[in-house]
Amino acid sequence: MEEKNVQHEAEVLHQKNLVLENIKAQEAERKRIAVMIHDDIGNRLNILSLWLNNLDTKGDELIKKNITTQMSSLIDSSRSISHSLYPVNLETVGLVLYIEELIANLSGRINISLSVSPKFQKKDIFIEVQLYRIIQEFTTNVLKHSEASRVWIYIKDNRNNLGVVISDNGESFEYEEVKKGMGIKNIESRIKSMNAAHKWKNVLGKGSRLIIKIPYTNEFPNQSSTN
Fold this sequence. Notes:
This protein has 227 residues and is of the alpha+beta class. It has helices spanning 2-54, 61-85, 90-93, 95-106, 125-146, 175-178, 182-193; strands spanning 111-116, 150-157, 161-168, 197-203, 207-215. Strand 1 (111-116), helix 5 (125-146) and strand 2 form a beta-alpha-beta unit. The longest helix is centred in the N-terminal third of the chain and has 53 residues, at 2-54. The two termini are 29 Å apart. Residues 219-227 have low confidence and may be disordered.
């Protein structure tokens, strides 16, 4: 029995390592493409826009205005695509400010409040990217499916772990019925990649809550539960 337990634990560890390496590879490729869009295409569009503004159009103001409008739209689109692929500036801006930017972008569609403990300290960039992705995925699901009017995000540095709670006041969902959906699968894969424990607390008609505990050590948690 002891040998079987050791073998089982080794297999679980192996599977978790596979998930971690897979997500790291995906993020590396996303980052490569996002940086290319952000730095190359975005910068080229900005330069073209500057040149356009310095042109002497000799009365063709309508043409210049239309081109300028299209150029501005292309710049915004390249930034949006880059941002959705990988949070390029997260390393320099930091997780909290990046979440606040996401909240500002969604302010016209839903009310999101963010509460961060005063003791919060910058985490490893991999952890911060995964957390941002989870929050992004959660809010996207809320907007698509839950008919919620509020989302709450809590981030707190505890003694042994980083605690994150994301909740909404929407219609919620039956976990067993939707757990294979891409939104839930993506969230839980990212949680596993951080060796974190998590729990869903859903009440139909009243809202959903996702609780995540990310250990500060490199040890794997005993289990992650879903309710």
